[in-house]
Write a structure and sequence with these properties.
The chain is 53% helix and 17% strand. By secondary structure, it is of the alpha+beta class. The protein has 3 domains: 7-118, Butyryl-Coa Dehydrogenase, subunit A, domain 1; 121-212, Butyryl-CoA Dehydrogenase, subunit A, domain 2; 219-367, Butyryl-CoA Dehydrogenase, subunit A, domain 3, CATH 1.20.140.10. Helix 1 (7-23) packs antiparallel against helix 3 (41-49), helix 5 packs antiparallel against helix 6 and helix 7 packs antiparallel against helix 10. Residues 218-341 form the Acyl-CoA dehydrogenase/oxidase C-terminal domain.
Length: 368
């Protein structure tokens, strides 16, 4: 299958690459890591000005209407520079609201997301080994709305967001619920993650919420699949950026009178990185194509892409740090950020072992 980007997606890639390359420099990323909210607000404003924050959203909601494929192009370019902006959770939340939200929810939330004046984040994870598709956070009806009770772990970049899209289980099944970030029954605990993002543990105690879609209708599975693909896209960019750093360093660093890049053992390490990256790319675009075409294999395609992102991506950042030698563990040198991002993405929404277990369950159902 040919996964070559068409003209529109290629234009998105070139625009995104220019903005991230110009704005997300090593010096700028280092400065943002020491800022209060750990988000590059200037870069966020630039992405909004370029129309990239709403790139995947429908045109009637103020977006560009280019769908999941364009979002993955954008996220890959973010990963190449490990740019500290909360793109994937906000974009996936916006897609879920655009697909399943009420007209009132879409009108209230989506235009601000596209313009960069409003943010929504996702609360899909909980503590302990569990499937994100089966949240233990509970939702009970309360008049025209709902009340949520439970704990959500490591909500990404919540403190500049106005709303949070929370997964919870009602009597009719799991679903998604929209809450205000600051309201009665909400408690936040600030936590710094592996990537230096400022995340939050969220405790809900009878918190007022609105359902996005009907609980038990598949809205949560739909969102988790797109979150998995979004994470795979970021990880692909992280791996590409890490390999680029390694190639530059090894071509300039000399030992025994010649560049390190000419040593066969080093070449083999970089060749393995290249193979893993190409496998990640093919599996990512197979998953995107399956989701956009509503193919019967979409669940397994997403799990394969997410597994490659976790396993292959982690292998790449490990190798890249290894071939840098001692400087690879120096936190003043940029390569360590790629390792940290690769490590965190690999464990988000379950690590590679969990993805394999889910894939095995899907395949066994298909074959039975």
């Amino acid at each position: 299958m040919d996964f070559t980007l068409d003209e529109e997606l290629d234009a998105v890639r070139e625009l995104a690459r220019k903005i991230f390359t110009d704005r997300a420099t090593t010096e700028r990323v280092r400065a943002v890591e020491g800022a209060a909210e750990r988000v590059d607000e200037d870069l966020w404003a630039e992405l909004a000005k370029a129309g990239l924050l709403g790139i995947a959203m429908p045109e009637k909601a103020g977006g560009a209407g280019l769908g999941l494929a364009a979002l993955c192009v954008l996220l890959t370019e973010q990963g190449r520079t490990v740019a500290p902006v909360p793109l994937w959770p906000g974009a996936v939340a916006a897609l879920a609201i655009a697909e399943y939200g009420t007209p009132e929810q879409r009108a209230a939330i989506l235009p601000g997301i596209a313009e960069g004046t409003a943010r929504v984040t996702l609360a899909l994870e909980e503590f302990g080994p569990h499937d994100p598709a089966e949240p233990r956070c509970t939702a009970r009806p309360d008049g025209d709305g709902w009340r949520l009770t439970g704990v959500k772990a490591v909500v990404p970049s919540p403190f500049a967001a106005g709303h949070v899209l929370v997964s919870a289980t009602a009597e009719t099944g799991p679903g998604l619920f929209l809450i205000e970030r600051e309201t009665d029954g909400v408690t936040w605990e600030r936590v710094e993650t592996t990537t230096h993002d400022l995340a939050g543990h969220l405790t809900l105690d009878g918190t007022a919420a609105q359902a996005v879609g009907t609980p038990g209708s598949g809205v949560l599975d739909w969102t988790i699949q797109r979150a998995g693909v979004a994470l795979a896209a970021v990880q692909l960019g992280v791996a590409e950026g890490a390999l680029r750093l390694a190639a530059t360093y090894l071509s300039e660093r000399r030992q025994f009178g010649r560049p390190l890049a000419t040593f066969q053992a080093v070449q083999h390490q970089l060749a393995d990185c290249y193979i893993d990256i190409e496998a990640m790319r093919v599996c990512l675009w197979q998953a995107v194509t399956s989701l956009e075409d509503a193919a019967a294999s979409e669940v397994s395609a997403v799990l394969v892409a997410k597994w490659w992102a976790g396993e292959g991506g982690l292998n790449v950042v490990h190798r890249v740090q290894h071939v840098h030698g001692g400087i690879g563990v120096d936190v003043d040198y940029p390569v360590h950020r790629y390792f940290l991002w690769g490590k965190q993405i690999a464990g988000t929404l379950g690590g590679p072992s969990a993805d394999l277990a889910r894939l095995g369950a899907v395949l066994s159902r298909v074959s039975s």
